[in-house]
Amino acid sequence: MSKYDVVMGAVITKPRTSLENKTGSWRTRRPVVDVEKCVNCLLCWIYCPDSAIIRLEDHIAINYDYCKGCGICAEECPRKAITMVEEG
Amino acid sequence: MVTLKQLPVEELWGPGHNACAGCGSSIAVKMILKALRGPTVVVSPTGCVEVVSSSYPQTAWGVPWVHVLFENAAAVASGIEAAYKYMVKKGITNEKPDVIVIAGDGGTFDIGLQALSGALERWHDFLYICYDNEAYMNTGIQRSSATPKGAWTTTSPAGKVIPGKPEWKKDLIGIAVAHGIPYAATATIAYWNDLITKVRKALEVEGPTVLHVLAPCPLGWRFDPSKTVEISRLAVQTRYFPLYEVENGVYKLSVKVSRPKPVEEFLRPQRRFRHLFTPENRHIIEEIQKNIDEGWERLLKRCGLKS
């Protein structure tokens, strides 16, 4: 090793390894989707800070592994298809 | 303009990041990454987005990303852009990726301002995005020059001596436009279409571009996490944060707010402004309203519109 070689610092070579970090455990309230009311407008999908909305064929589902329970989806849903329920 | 169904399903801002529940800047980053047009390198200085996305050995980024010091994000982006330009010239690579800086208001308005000014002046082809949560949130809500007048922070505490921060907020887009850059704009998360369209437009422009994105912070602004998008919408509807773009010096209003709500509606849900609603501080709300009205008039004049 010559004196000009620089030791690499904290390099992560794989993308999105944070998927291991299941932030769903932070949640105190849980969003529940009424699939009858859901029109698949995807507003919850674009506003979810934790990318915890799963797009399905004609409605959405919640990824409880990552949902932190902020309640933005329930607040923004124009059809009121999502309700927040106490966890536990 | 895009529709939600046209946007890429693939997430480049991975879940599992450590942002607070209801984080506004996290929504902003997610939307920004939905607007990419090809290979992209993202540079972030120290700040909320950097801290929450990179708890080693994990990363939330789905694009190449580099964390640099608080003050030199724009300088590092300049270097990356210049290096790729040279590599294309020498035939080492045939594609030049887009270079985006995603920096907070502390890293932009205060600490990184000279690096930003330098990079704009040197005319590097990059996009600088400031997600503005109006204080140093990750270190514990200290005031920055983006904090609005009257806001409580831990270094501008509301009490007998001062009623929150005594000074006004800095005009970032004004500073950016003064460099004569081809594109600068404001955006906020509630208007997702506007934000994504502006990011894509800025990427397609040759030369330096700046975006100022308002990202409400439930922790520092003191409101319920479920209201993040609602607060962002109120900021526009009260004319507190007008959405506009400046293309080659020509101003254009993006969202016309013909029937504005009084600024109280934006201030009241946020407990950082709670002290303003006491009789002795009431005049500050009137000052803020007056400042907003005057700013809107100025903006309309620049856009060539009548009030």
Task: Summarize this structure as a short list of keywords or feature phrases.
heterodimer, A: 88 residues, alpha+beta, Alpha-Beta Plaits, two-stranded antiparallel sheet, two-stranded antiparallel ribbon, 4 strands, elongated, B: 307 residues, alpha/beta, Rossmann fold, eight-stranded mixed sheet, 35% helix, globular
CATH homolog superfamily of chain B: Thiamin diphosphate (ThDP)-binding fold, Pyr/PP domains
Give the CATH level 1 class of chain A.
Answer: Alpha Beta
Unreliable segments of 5+ consecutive residues of chain B = none
Largest sheet entry of chain A: 2 strands, antiparallel
In order across it, which strands form the biggest sheet of chain B? 2-1-3-4-6-5-7-8
Number of helices of chain A: 2
Question: Strand share of the residues of chain B?
Answer: 5-15%
How many DSSP-defined strands of chain A? 4
So what's the oligomer here? heterodimer
General form of chain A:
elongated
CATH first level of chain B: Alpha Beta
What class do helices, strands and sheet pairing of chain B give?
A: alpha/beta
Task: Name the beta content range of chain A.
Answer: 15-25%
Span between termini of chain A: 57 Å
Please tally the β strands of chain B and state the result. 8
The tally of structural domains of chain B comes to 1
Distance between the termini of chain B: 26 Å
- Proportion of helical residues of chain B: 25-40%
What is the rounded Rg of chain B?
19 Å
Q: Which fold name fills CATH's third level, the topology of chain B?
A: Rossmann fold
Largest sheet, strands/sense/barrel of chain B: 8 strands, mixed
